[in-house]
């Protein structure tokens, strides 16, 4: 597992403590009942903390799964 | 605190810990404020499982009004914002900002505040209520330029001031200090308008954290320190009194030594509010005595006891002062201008808080004085606070006479001791304060929130006994509390504390006698838990049982009567709440 994926997994575990570790990679708003609008904002802020970046609320609607967040981060971190 | 840390704090809680339920009343999406509040309260109550629930969006007043309809929470936190007073003050609202609206906004805000005040005053005793007044900027809807305070804005502020003054008079609601909050969270860095418009949370993360931190402090305040031990030279006054003489040490504006005068005023003020003040100084006692005779001292000599002045180590002085005060080092602050003296005292008393007096640094000195006020500040001052130091001074005289000259029996018989048992003291703040700050004579070390305490007292068969004492040496004030309930023919004692100032007077035996007589119980079941500090109470039990108990136990009436020593007190009883005026 690469470092970004590992750190993002930890973010998910903080926001969704009941989510089994092996379910994190497949997590999405469709599969995680606790991933509501409040959790989405919390997750965004936890990711901001972890990766020392600022995210835009406009991006929130598209970041609806672990994989989309991971792709987003890869792009952001490459630019940085 | 970061949001990740806050989430982890709320998750790393012992699953079976006793719950502590907080209701958060706010009109916006609570989101991070809720998370941070839970984390800060959890940090203050590590042995509880803190949960924070919130009401409906836009329903601050409704959340408070319906709080009586379900089991009362342990605490209620109200984060009031302008939008709660009138929807037109909400950035998310489509309401008009026109001229016709502004007068109406002020009037409707007043009406909402009346509703909130009425709802708060209807909440039964129990939950502690912490309130923050609006922290966000008003929208630019009034007709004046922003650098002027418009009459409408002044009107809103006036209504808020009346509202919070009325609540403060009632004493049930504590309010976050807006100035202190502004130091932690500058006004210009509080509003996150995009977050407000997108998510309904108007706060920046930083502001949510800082506001939650202040609300948590208001909801679960730390126990105040009980005493301050101060150095003299270049601390209480400027100059070395042994070198320049008692008349030449200064603490005034003309000598540019006003910092020491301010420090004296602070100590005097803290002493007035019940904080114990003592002196530990390496000096010539005769010279210091002369200095204390100066009439321009801002700290009155009678406010200071004991005064330890000699050339020996200060750690020894501190040890003797703690012994005289009969309190632990963890309840005390030691102030000195010498880092070396602070280190010497800290090495001998690791639990004491050592504070440097920064004599040449004005900003640091003000910071230090604010810190002392923060650590010793009290929400309410009781009658007992004003007699505490005097009772300790008299207690020292008591001990001196008790251990010299007359035999203990004849001594105790001659001191005109009066023990007063108050059966109607449930509403007295001093009672819970005593329970929560007493260590040495404490049945189990348990601490209670106001809500826990009220729950204990409203049970059927519950009994609360507050004990006060005085003798020819003077009054000690309220010095003991027993709380419990009758269960069949037994009295179950859940809390029993007695101030260390009242030791050696057999008040504990008189208290047990009163409990047996007033309840008619055959036995008393003590919810005793040995702690690192409650050895004095364990020794009392050992004297009654023949051996020290290892945990909860029962004491029968016959066991007590067999081993109870002779009691010489005059006993008085207060049975009705009216006696408290």
Explain this structure to me?
The complex is a heterodimer of chains A (80) and B (581). With 80 residues, chain A is mostly helical. Chain A has one domain (3-79): Orthogonal Bundle (Non-ribosomal Peptide Synthetase Peptidyl Carrier Protein, Chain A). Chain A has 3 helices and no strands. In chain A, helix 1 crosses helix 2 (37-51) and helix 1 (3-15) packs across helix 3 (66-79). Chain A is globular. The mean pLDDT of chain A is 90. A 7-stranded mixed β-sheet of chain B has the order 16-15-14-13-12-11-17, with helices on both faces. Chain B has 3 domains: 3-219, Rossmann fold, CATH 3.40.50; 227-376, HAD superfamily/HAD-like (Rossmann fold), CATH 3.40.50.1000; 404-580, Gcn5-related N-acetyltransferase (GNAT) (Aminopeptidase), CATH 3.40.630.30. Chain B is α/β, with parallel strands linked by helices. Chain B starts with a helix and ends in a 7-residue tail after the last strand. In chain B, helix 1 packs across helix 2 (31-44) and helix 11 (258-272) packs parallel to helix 15 (362-376). Chains A and B meet through helix 1 and helix 2 of A and helix 1, helix 2 and helix 8 of B.
């Amino acid at each position: 597992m690469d470092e970004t994926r590992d750190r993002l997994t930890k973010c998910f575990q903080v926001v969704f403590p009941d989510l089994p570790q092996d379910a994190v990679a497949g997590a999405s708003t469709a599969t995680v009942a606790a991933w509501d609008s409040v959790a989405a904002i919390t997750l965004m802020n936890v990711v901001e903390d972890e990766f020392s970046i600022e995210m835009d609320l406009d991006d929130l609607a598209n970041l609806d799964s672990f994989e989309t967040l991971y792709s987003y981060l890869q792009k952001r971190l490459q630019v940085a | 605190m970061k949001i990740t840390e806050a989430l982890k704090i709320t998750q790393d809680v012992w699953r079976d810990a006793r719950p502590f339920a907080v209701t958060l009343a706010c009109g916006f999406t609570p989101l991070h404020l809720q998370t941070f509040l839970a984390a800060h309260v959890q940090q203050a109550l590590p042995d509880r499982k803190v949960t924070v629930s919130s009401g409906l969006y836009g329903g601050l007043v409704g959340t408070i009004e319906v709080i009586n309809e379900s089991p009362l929470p342990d605490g209620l936190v109200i984060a009031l914002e302008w939008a709660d007073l009138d929807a037109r003050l909400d950035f998310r609202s489509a309401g008009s900002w026109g001229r016709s609206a502004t007068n109406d906004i002020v009037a409707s805000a007043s009406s909402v505040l009346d509703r909130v005040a009425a709802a708060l005053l209807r909440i039964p005793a129990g939950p502690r209520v912490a309130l923050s007044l609006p922290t966000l900027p008003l929208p630019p809807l009034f007709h004046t330029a922003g650098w002027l305070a418009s009459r409408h804005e002044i009107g809103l502020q006036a209504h808020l001031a009346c509202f919070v003054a009325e609540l403060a008079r009632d004493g049930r609601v504590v309010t976050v200090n807006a100035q202190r909050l502004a130091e932690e969270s500058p006004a210009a860095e509080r509003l996150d308008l995009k977050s407000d418009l997108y998510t309904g949370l108007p706060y920046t993360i930083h502001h949510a954290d800082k506001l939650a931190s202040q609300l948590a402090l208001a909801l679960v305040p730390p126990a105040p320190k009980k005493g301050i031990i101060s150095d003299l030279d270049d601390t209480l006054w400027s100059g070395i009194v042994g070198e320049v003489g008692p008349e030449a040490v200064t603490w005034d504006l003309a000598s540019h030594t006003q910092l020491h005068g301010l420090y004296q005023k602070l100590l005097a003020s803290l002493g007035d509010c019940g904080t114990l003040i003592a002196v530990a100084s390496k000096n010539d006692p005769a010279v210091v005595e002369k200095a204390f005779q100066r009439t321009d001292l801002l700290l009155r000599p009678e406010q200071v006891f004991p005064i330890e002045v000699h050339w020996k180590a200060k750690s020894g002085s501190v040890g003797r002062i703690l012994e005289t005060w009969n309190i632990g080092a963890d309840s005390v602050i030691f102030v000195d201008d010498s880092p070396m003296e602070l280190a010497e005292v800290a090495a001998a008393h690791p639990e004491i808080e050592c504070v440097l007096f920064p004599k040449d640094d004005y900003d640091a000195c003000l910071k230090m004085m604010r810190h002392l006020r923060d650590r010793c500040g009290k929400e309410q001052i009781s009658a007992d606070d004003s007699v505490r130091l005097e009772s300790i001074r008299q207690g020292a005289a008591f001990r001196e006479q008790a251990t010299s000259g007359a035999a203990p029996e004849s001594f105790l018989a001659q001191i005109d001791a009066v023990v007063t048992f108050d059966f109607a003291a449930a509403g007295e703040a001093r009672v819970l304060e005593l329970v929560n700050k007493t260590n040495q004579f404490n049945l189990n070390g348990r601490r209670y929130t106001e809500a826990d305490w009220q729950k204990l007292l409203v049970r059927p068969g519950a009994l609360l006994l507050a004990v006060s004492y005085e003798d020819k040496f003077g009054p000690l004030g309220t010095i003991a509390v027993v709380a419990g309930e009758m269960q069949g023919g037994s009295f179950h004692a859940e809390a029993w504390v007695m101030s260390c100032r009242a030791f050696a007077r057999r008040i504990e035996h008189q208290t047990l006698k009163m409990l047996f007589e007033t309840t008619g119980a055959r036995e008393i079941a003590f919810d005793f838990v040995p702690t690192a500090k409650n050895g004095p109470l364990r020794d009392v039990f050992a004297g009654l049982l023949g051996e020290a108990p290892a945990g909860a136990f029962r004491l029968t009436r016959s066991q007590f009567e067999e081993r109870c020593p002779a009691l010489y007190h005059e006993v008085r009883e207060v049975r009705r709440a009216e006696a408290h005026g």
